[in-house]
Structure formats: structure tokens, C-alpha cells
Design brief:
The complex is a heterotrimer. Helix content of chain B is 36%, strand content 17%. Chain B contains 15 helices and 13 strands. Chain C is an alpha+beta fold. Chain C folds into 2 domains: 20-50 and 59-161, PurM-like, N-terminal domain (60s Ribosomal Protein L30, Chain: A); 178-336, Phosphoribosyl-aminoimidazole Synthetase, Chain A, domain 2. The chains are: A alpha+beta, B alpha/beta, C alpha+beta. At the A-B interface, strand 1, strand 4, strand 5 and helix 1 of A face helix 1, helix 5, helix 6, helix 9 and helix 11 of B.
């Protein structure tokens, strides 16, 4: 139920709606909780609502940290 | 899947687990609570406990909103659904949660109640628009992740001038529950030394609300994403904090969580909801300021008022250990009815119903570890 | 001789609807049956217009199966209730290693069901039946009042001829046997769900509904006495099938998540809905448990067949008194694969 997934914004629609995609599966969702969305942005989706934008730089930084933490072994 | 697959790399996970094993001092135990049911599910589904050294122990927390819903509130929803005027819209997990006397929403549906599973509050509002002849009630359950969508549904109902839409509000809050864990009399037996903070609750509330636990209680909190690599990295960060005697709030889920949280979501919640003086939580008892109800201005959307619903005291099955499990005092295998009388097909408590519940997670993914004593998984 | 010969008006397929007279046994029903069902299924048995059909029985063991189809929605990407009914019934016969011979189809139609939709379903069944080479030789039609059946329900029976030799049996798997899967999982369930109200999502996934008797024949030609059991993982998905076999054969399974093929879109749709592809229905795939000595040859034979191109070995049967289906996750940890409890999404098949 806390299930939330990262999806790509494909199309911005009126009334705070958008089409988002996960691997080609497209759903119509609400963007009322997130500002300044652009096509190509990624958002965290929960029960039909985008909750937050995913920051690609922070994501990359996390992956770097994971890679170095995992590689020390 | 972008932002998903990269965080499921098994080799990296084993590397990080090796770091955990190296840095965890062999002379002591590290008792970490993953608060959120989503993390409980991830730990079970990916077999993360197989990767951890024996002295790093995960304790399941009460962050499963379906699990902490007391029977009395489930009974209230069933009573509401039995009203022939009502179309009750629910998230799927709620169908089989046991109410009193063997009742459940699934059974009520079989008996003729109009109960519909929806993916989103958007769908519930749509149903209300399409069926002005029905009283559409949305069974609103969830922590702060799920609360803003309910708030928006109320706003949408208002904008559209709907007179047949209402909610049965059972939204609860994360910090009061964490506080209850730390304040509880079990503190000696549970001895939580650090928390993995919830992922998506934190996208909404930010990381500041956890400062209290770091500063006042001296417990480190690391907010972690949902993917297995996020979880193991958070565990490593907690082990380090404990070793270094730090108690800080750290954010592992920086790609989606900012310190202030989602201000827009917080604003819409504040607009529509206010705190209840007290609310009953399965396992944690009555907690002050821990749950929400609609503000007076939105009273017309409150199904409790609209349908005069009464919360009649109800008790869990005495054999059910959900309460102790939710507090982290017991594990599913400590429950006498786990796997025998209580199974996902015949659940006695909500921990077995929700996929985020500790009992359900253990049954679905982990119970093979129980066989032949404490033997490790054959596959490890 | 009567001077009055009623003019036989054609059925208004385009705008007409099934009404209670179509189930009453009179002329209207006869016309419906002829114009819709006989036209679509078109064979001598049906043209004879009897309530039953006769066929010669070859010497040997007969296999019989029956099935009900209540899928909602009736039309979904990759098929409809009709093609599903034909292929599903054929598959039940085929999974026994038997050769499907004939089908029957009984329709319970809701008053008000559009004739155009009924014709579409019938045409789809006719096509599936012809493609498979298994005729529908007898049937029945009933009409119930509005609200008493959701559009149309189809009930089928199938008969087939068992192969000579050791019969396949769900209790025949042994530790060491290899588990073969004919292709990607989750396609059918996801295709149906994508059209469900309140779950709608856009996707290119289509149902994998297909008649598998040709693939089975290819497997049996090579595997003969080394094929222990075959099963098509429909409702409940691969998880249910493996658990059933584990229980019946009193063994466990050890499988590799990485070996199980799942289309990226199916995996994504399952993420959206919080489902595990292992629990999602398939209508054109099979699991074959094969003795180790024959596994490579059977796998090769599957891969050559159009419906088995994606066939892979996913694991082995093991000795396990607990009868668990254990899986090594892509992640490297261990978990079990259990039946899904309850019915998360009703009426997938």
C-alpha cells in the first residue's frame, strides 16, 4: 500500500493530469502535488498521484555511493 | 525499469553486506527497526536477512496502515458498506482484513454489499460522479503517503459540487507511532537502537520530523528508498552511526526525499484535515494526536457523521499476536497460531492479510527458513 | 399445403440484441443458432441440427475435460472469451499428453447482449477451432434475464484420445527432474487487467491465449516416457502450478528467478499493480517436468516450435518434505514462491 514506483512523464495534460510510463506501460495520473513537471521527468507515483520528482543528479550520486560501498569487498 | 533495476543489483548488495559484516562489531548486537511495511516487504521478498551478519537484527515496525487498523474501525467500514445506499470504495488490501465475528469486507460483498476495489481516489470520485444515485464512500486508510491523495479527492468533490461523496477517515501519522515504540513499556525487550525511516512517507513529510528521535531519544534514523540496495545501504549507515555513537537523521533516499518534504502535499493535508485527540492503533493502544479527521468545514464529507457510524469496542482474537508483532516484541514465528490456524487463506489478524504485514511477508517469502531449526536458506 | 410461408427476416446483427425469445426454443432461437453459431463453426455435425453429435471412438483411453469461461471484459487485447474457451479446453486435454478431438460449447447469454458482440465471439471461436483443427460439434444456448449473467458465459467440454504409454500424472515428478517453461509469463493476466475498469492502463501486451496441442505433440515425440507431467499455468500463475505439482508429487522445487522470462512491459504493469508475475494467469504457456536425461532434447524440441521459441529450463525438482517451491532471487537471496491467497482480481479466465 505504500507501494510507490518511479515513472517517466510522457505527456502533460490539463487539470493537473499527466500520462506517465513505466517500461512502455502508460497510465493517466494526477500531478496536483508536484510543480514544474516536464516531459521526460521522472516522478514517484503512489495510488494514482505523483508525490515527488526524482532528482537525476542525486540518483546518480546514490548509485556512485552504492557502487563504491559495494565494491570495497 | 529506470530508477528501479539499478537499485536491485545483487552483486553490489553482497558487497555492501560484506561491509556491514566487517564494520559490525562482533561483540555486540545491532537492533534496527524498519518502521515501514514496505521495507518489511522488501526485506522478505529479496531475502535481505540472508545477507546480514547474525548480530545485525531487523525488527519489524508498525508502519503498515492496514495492520494497525483496529478491528473496531474495520467493523465500522463493514457496517457502512452494509447500508444499501452505500457504494464503498477501498484499496485492494483491505478486502480480507478480519472484522469481529469472522466478518470482512469480502464476506460483506458476498452478502450483497456494494464494495469496489479502486487503484486511486481519482477512481472513487469518478464513481461518485457517474452514479449520483449512490452514496459513494471512500475507505481512507494510510500513513502520510496516502493522505494527500485523499485530501485532493475531497477538494475535487468540492470543486465538482458532489453531494454523494464522503470518506471514512482512518489516516494515521508516522512520528507518533515511532514515539510510541520508544516510549512503550517494551523498551527493554525491544531495545530499538536505530530506525530505517519510511521512504515515501518521507517524500511527503520530509526528514525534519525524525529529528526528535535522533536528538531527544538518541536514536539514529536513516530514511531509505524501497529497493533492496537502498535498504542495505541504510543498514550500513545505521551501523556506522551506532559505531561512531552518532544519532543523526540521515537521508539515503536523496533522489526523492528533501528535508522539507512536499510542501504542496503538506498544505493540502493541513487544509482538509485536523488531528484527532486520540485514536486506537492495533498493538500500540490509544495514541494522542496520532490520526486525522476532516475539519469542521468539510464535515459534510465525513462518512462517520453522515451515516452516524458508531465505533463499538472490539477485541482481537486472543490468540492473535499482531499487537506484539507490530511493537516488535514478537516475531511471526512466536505466534502460536501462525501458519496453523492463521494463514493468508484464513487470516486471524491483519498482519497476515496485508502484503506489508510481518506475518504475511514471513509466510509468503520466508517461512522456509523455519524448517529444520534455524538452518539458513539452502540457496544461500 | 399452407399458403403461408413466413418471411425469414435476417438477424439484425448490427443493432440487434439477444432477447428472451432467443432462448425460448422456438424459431427465434433456431435462427440465432444457425445464423451465428453454425455460420461461425461450420461443420457437418452442426449442420445436421441435432441436440447431440456422434463420432467413432478409436481404441484406447479417452480423455475428457470441462471448463467454464467468465472472463471480464469479454474482449481483451489478444483474444476474447470465445478464443479463450476454445484454446483453454484444448489445452486441458493436451496437458494430459492426449490428442484433442472434439469440443462442445454451451452459451448462457444475458438478455440485451448485442448480437454484433455475439457474432464476434462466435467468429473468434470458429477461427480458433479451425486453426487448432478441433471442431465444435455440439452446443447449447440459453438466455437469462438482464442482470443474471454478465454478457455471456461459456461452458465447454472437450474429448481427446490418450497417447499409448505411461500416462502423465501430477504425482509423477521426482527429485532431480528438470522444470521447463515454454515462454514468458504474465501476459494474459496483464492484458485482461489493462482493460479492467478502475485499473486501466495503456499497454501493447496481448494475451498469449493459444492452443498448445501442437507443442505438446512435439514434446511427446522426443520425450516419450521421460515426460512426467505437463500443466498450463492459468489461474494463479506459475506459482500455483508449481505448488500444486509439489504437493501432488510430494517434492519441492528449486528455481532461479533470473531464468524465468517476463516481458519488461508485463514486469512494469505488475509493478504498477503491486503484483508478482509469478501469480498472474497465462493462457498459452506450459510447464513440463522432464527426467534429466531427456531434458535437453525436449527443450530443443520446444524451442523449434512456434509456441515454444522462448522455452527455458527454470529449475529442478528437489527432495523436500515441506514441499516448498524455493527460488533464488535475481538479487541473490532466497525466498519461497507460494500460492497467492484469495482472489486478488476476479475473473481473469
Amino acid at each position: 500500500m505504500c507501494l510507490a514506483i518511479p515513472v517517466e512523464v510522457r505527456e502533460i495534460l490539463p487539470n493537473d493530469m499527466a500520462k506517465v510510463s513505466l517500461n512502455g506501460v502508460v497510465k493517466l495520473v494526477s500531478t496536483a502535488l508536484v510543480d514544474d513537471l516536464r516531459v521526460g521527468d521522472y516522478v514517484v507515483l503512489h495510488v494514482g498521484y505523483a508525490l515527488a520528482k526524482i532528482d537525476p543528479e542525486e540518483a546518480a550520486r546514490t548509485l556512485e555511493m552504492l557502487a563504491s560501498a559495494g565494491a570495497i569487498a | 525499469m529506470k530508477y528501479v533495476d539499478e537499485y536491485r543489483d545483487g552483486e553490489l548488495a553482497r558487497g555492501i553486506a560484506a561491509s556491514i559484516a566487517r564494520e559490525a562489531a562482533p561483540s555486540r548486537e545491532y537492533r534496527l527497526m524498519e518502521f515501514c511495511g514496505g521495507h518489511t516487504h522488501a526485506i522478505s521478498r529479496y531475502g535481505l536477512e540472508d545477507l546480514l551478519p547474525d548480530n545485525v537484527r531487523m525488527i519489524h515496525g508498525p508502519g503498515c496502515p492496514v495492520c494497525v487498523l483496529p478491528m473496531a474501525r474495520v467493523d465500522m467500514a463493514i457496517a457502512c458498506a452494509r447500508d444499501p445506499r452505500v457504494t464503498l470504495c477501498i484499496y485492494g488490501d483491505l478486502m480480507r482484513v478480519p472484522g469481529s465475528n469472522g466478518a470482512s469486507l469480502l464476506r460483506a460483498r458476498a452478502e450483497g454489499a456494494d464494495i469496489r476495489m479502486v487503484y486511486s481516489t481519482l477512481d472513487a470520485v469518478r464513481i461518485a460522479e457517474a452514479r449520483p444515485d449512490r452514496e459513494v464512500v471512500f475507505f481512507a486508510v494510510g500513513f502520510e503517503t496516502t493522505t494527500p491523495p485523499t485530501a485532493l479527492a475531497i477538494r475535487a468533490a468540492e470543486t465538482k459540487g458532489l453531494t454523494n461523496f464522503s470518506i471514512l477517515c482512518n489516516h494515521v501519522m508516522t512520528p507518533p507511532a515511532m514515539r510510541a515504540i520508544l516510549d512503550s513499556g517494551d523498551v527493554e525487550s525491544v531495545r530499538v537502537e536505530g530506525f530505517i525511516g519510511p521512504a515515501h512517507v518521507s517524500t511527503v513529510i520530509g526528514t525534519r520530523p525524525y529529528e526528535e528521535f535522533a536528538q531527544r531519544y538518541g536514536k539514529p534514523v536513516v530514511v531509505a528508498g524501497f529497493e533492496p540496495l537502498d535498504v542495505v545501504q541504510a543498514i550500513l549507515m545505521l551501523v556506522r552511526q551506532i559505531n561512531e555513537r552518532r544519532s543523526e537523521v540521515e537521508n539515503q533516499y536523496v533522489r526523492a526525499v528533501v528535508e522539507a518534504g512536499n510542501l504542496k502535499a503538506q498544505a493540502v493535508m493541513d487544509e482538509v484535515f485536523e488531528r484527532r485527540e486520540t485514536f486506537e492503533w492495533r498493538g500500540l493502544g490509544w495514541l494522542k494526536d496520532s490520526a486525522l479527521r476532516l475539519k469542521a468545514a468539510y464535515a459534510r464529507y465525513d462518512a462517520e457523521l453522515r451515516f452516524d457510524l458508531v465505533e463499538a469496542p472490539a477485541r482481537d482474537n486472543p490468540a492473535c499476536e499482531c499487537g506484539a508483532i507490530l511493537r516488535g516484541v514478537k516475531k511471526p514465528r512466536d505466534c502460536k497460531v501462525f501458519g496453523t490456524l492463521c494463514t493468508p487463506d484464513t487470516p486471524m489478524g491483519s498482519c497476515m492479510v496485508s502484503p506489508e504485514g510481518a506475518c504475511s511477508a514471513h509466510w509468503t517469502y520466508g517461512r522456509f527458513r523455519e524448517t529444520a531449526g534455524r538452518e539458513r536458506s539452502r540457496l544461500a | 399445403m399452407s399458403k403461408h410461408h413466413p418471411v425469414r427476416r435476417r438477424l439484425d446483427i448490427k443493432n440487434g440484441r439477444v432477447d428472451l425469445t432467443h432462448g425460448a426454443g422456438g424459431r427465434a432461437m433456431g435462427q440465432l443458432i444457425e445464423d451465428i453459431f453454425h455460420a461461425a463453426f461450420d461443420n457437418d455435425w452442426l449442420r445436421a441440427g441435432d441436440d447431440q453429435s456422434a463420432f467413432d471412438v478409436a481404441a484406447g483411453r479417452m480423455v475428457m475435460t470441462t471448463d467454464g469461461y467468465v472472463v471480464s471484459p469479454i474482449f481483451f487485447p489478444g483474444g476474447d472469451i470465445g478464443s479463450l474457451a476454445v484454446n483453454g479446453t484444448i489445452n486441458d486435454i493436451a496437458m494430459a499428453g492426449a490428442r484433442p478431438l472434439y469440443l462442445s460449447a454451451s452459451f448462457i447469454i444475458e438478455e440485451g447482449f448485442p448480437l454484433a458482440d455475439l457474432q464476434r465471439v462466435a467468429a473468434s471461436m470458429g477461427e480458433a477451432s479451425r486453426l487448432a483443427g478441433v471442431p465444435i460439434i455440439t452446443g447449447d444456448t440459453k438466455v437469462v434475464e438482464r442482470g443474471k449473467a454478465d454478457g455471456v458465459f461459456i461452458s465447454t467440454a472437450g474429448v481427446g484420445l490418450a497417447r499409448v504409454g505411461r500416462p502423465l500424472s501430477s504425482d509423477a515428478a521426482r527429485p532431480g527432474d528438470v522444470v521447463l517453461l515454454s515462454g514468458t509469463i504474465g501476459d494474459h493476466g496483464v492484458a485482461v487487467m489493462s482493460k479492467r475498469e478502475n485499473l486501466e492502463f495503456e499497454t501493447e501486451i496481448v494475451s498469449d491465449s493459444a492452443a498448445l496441442h501442437g507443442l505438446v505433440a512435439a514434446i511427446m515425440a522426443v520425450g516419450e516416457g521421460n515426460v512426467r507431467v505437463m500443466r498450463d499455468p492459468t489461474r494463479g500463475g506459475l506459482a500455483a502450478t508449481l505448488n500444486e505439482l509439489a504437493h501432488r508429487s510430494r517434492i519441492g522445487f528449486s528455481i532461479e528467478e533470473d531464468a524465468i522470462p517476463v516481458r519488461p512491459e508485463v514486469a512494469a504493469a505488475c509493478e504498477f499493480l503491486g503484483l508478482d508475475p509469478l501469480n498472474v494467469a497465462n493462457e498459452g504457456k506450459l510447464v513440463a517436468i522432464v527426467a534429466p536425461a531427456a531434458a535437453a532434447a525436449v527443450l530443443a524440441a520446444m524451442q523449434v516450435h512456434p509456441l515454444g521459441r522462448g522455452a527455458v529450463a527454470i529449475g529442478r525438482a528437489i527432495a523436500d518434505e515441506n514441499r516448498f517451491v524455493q527460488m533464488r532471487t535475481s538479487f541473490g537471496g532466497g525466498r519461497i514462491v507460494d500460492w497467492l491467497s484469495g482472489e486478488q482480481l476476479p475473473r481473469i479466465c
